[in-house]
Fold:
Amino acid sequence: MTGLKRLIREAHRRSLWQVMGIYAFTSWVIYQVVLALFEGIGLPPWVPGTALALLLVGLPIVLATAFVQEGGPGLRSEDRLDSVEGLESAADAVAAERPRTVDAGTAQRPDSEPRGAALFTWRKAVTGGVLAFACLGLAASGFMGMRSMGIGPMGTLIAKGELSANARMLIADFGAPAADSSTALAVTEALRIDLPQSPVIRVVDQGEVGPALQRMGLEPTAALSEAVARELAVREGIETVLIGELSPLGTTTQLTARLIAAADGAVLLSVREVAGGPDEIVDAVDRLSARIRERAGETWKSIRASEPLLQATTRSLEALQLYSRAQRAAVLEGDNDRAAELLEEALALDSTFAMGWRKYGVVLTNAGRPRADRVEAFTQALRYSDRLPPLERYTTVASYYTYVEYDPQRAIDAYNEVVERGIAYWGTYNNLALLYYSVGRFENAAAAIDEAVTLNPTALAFGNQVVRRVSAGDRAGAEQALARRMDLYPEHPDNPSLAVRLAYYRGQRDSVRIIAERGLVEATRATDELGPLFTLYEMDELEGRLADARRREERANRIRRQAGDLAAIHSSRLGRVSWTIMMKGDHDAARRLLDEALAEIPLDSIPPLDRPYLWIAEVEAILGNPERARQLLAEREREIPPELRQGRRARTSTEGMIALTEGREEEALELLREATRGTSGLPPTYGDLAWAYDVTGRADSAIAAYHRYEDLQHWSRMVNDDLWLPRVYERLARLHEERGDREEAVLYYARLVDLWADADAELQPRVEAARRALAQLSGEGR
Structure:
């Protein structure tokens, strides 16, 4: 009480203006404390306003007290001290006061007090203020307690048990009059942007909706009306559905949303907001989303930590509408080209549209557009990333360090920021799995992809689970993941490519061909033929059917040329050059093919970021032109900024090949070994190392490296085996034979004969030589 008494005593001694100044400063301090608590522990939204109201109410009370205690005409010091009874003796108080002259004719009698002196005292004013804020604290604590325990109207849906934590929510398309249909689509998309930021709500990904609609016998692009959304939710085990509509009311628009239980249609929550005009639509959606999140059970602190939706989207309603149509085209229709066109229109309307830039980068990546365009999109997205909600912000940062400046650890850190914020988004874990795998953290990768599937069993998550399990050597697990995916998404267009890879890993090359041939027949667009054509090309080249491989290559390149994809054509030409070197050992023919490829498509006709500098440099080194190889590396450094140069392992491998050609064998082998370290390993780097050991006469090391390639579990093995596997079999057979290891030699000669049984005539002499060696080693033909 000593401090309180001192405060009252000091207030008593001050003049009216001093008291007002002290009160203003004290009010500011108190309000700052309230705001700090409001932000720090997530107090209810009405607390700051109530605190401000209490401080405003206290102002006239303080002024009245100051006037009565300090400003009453002729009030004696002795009378003023009576209102602070017991604080100090009258003599001390009088001594402390400024001496004043009192006219005896006007002096009051001691028993005559000014009106209100007993009511307006400093003790009562200060005590009343303390009690008022104590009551505010008790009210806020009680409100938060009742909210967290699910008591009364303050209780959240999760606290009441009406909604399970992290329950999945399907957002139906908002209804609206025909004239406002595009606005309704934009509002729906805006909610699909904002609600996933919540750590207590799991919005169903749009990638899961299309296949689910197909299982219902509908088109994957069918509108999600209330009836369709409810049926889909019940079929897919989705707990809740958010239904909404836009209703024009004069010059305003009312946004209404109802959260219903999918099983019985019970309304769990109903909220509405009003937008004064088109420019206020996004603000209204932001408020609507915040109320849904708060009533579901998210803390106010978490809600307030989210960026306003208006910053994440755009003030241009037309740009938001275009973005919404692009999202639909990319996710539901699988038309990335159309999505890119729509996003370009949106970005022309608002060049600071952060979500638009990010989605544009994703669409360009999925469409296989030139890397320069993708870099520009992700760079612009990063530039405006501070305007994005947390989920999108950190995903954008991670995308930048994945697709632009390749820095996997920074990308991993960005995704983990999302995880630490409690946002349970499946895509975060899916992308984390890919990054963990790329840096060799296989256990983390497996855990992350399994979490992605648990959170949201999308087709993409299942597909990546297949890839990760194959690469981890868990073929049975990969089969199970693919079976689940095909059961849930039987019509997904990527199913055949996954089935092809698993059939290949089972050694069922005939099944690979059957699936790919079916894909060619079922293709509805020319670009849809590219995947099956590439698979058949790989199988033909692997099995030595070179003429068939070349015909498929030319068919694919005609389609690529129509699409303007010169870089892909160039890569196919370089593939033929590499095959001629590794499988035929014909450097003169390889030289002619390389010169023809560069004459057909000069390097300067390809955007710098898409130029295969490293591949051509390695080929030049192997063909005995290390100086040309170095020129290409120098040109790469001139044309591509350091932060945009990817392919560190490929660069190391290329430098190793240059060193090998220049006779620096030990340095070369160390560089080639370095290219295989610290990651999941890439088949070409192991192939290069094995080849280098072989040509330098290190037989034991060559055998070990060839076996390492053969045993390598990697999803990209199928697309590299056409170049490496026949050589691996042929060289292992001969090297084992030279060492006197008869059984191993027989095994690999037999594998080569089986692989090239139907090879073209130009390869048949090597097949016959393998058969003779096999017969001799097996004791036949003696």
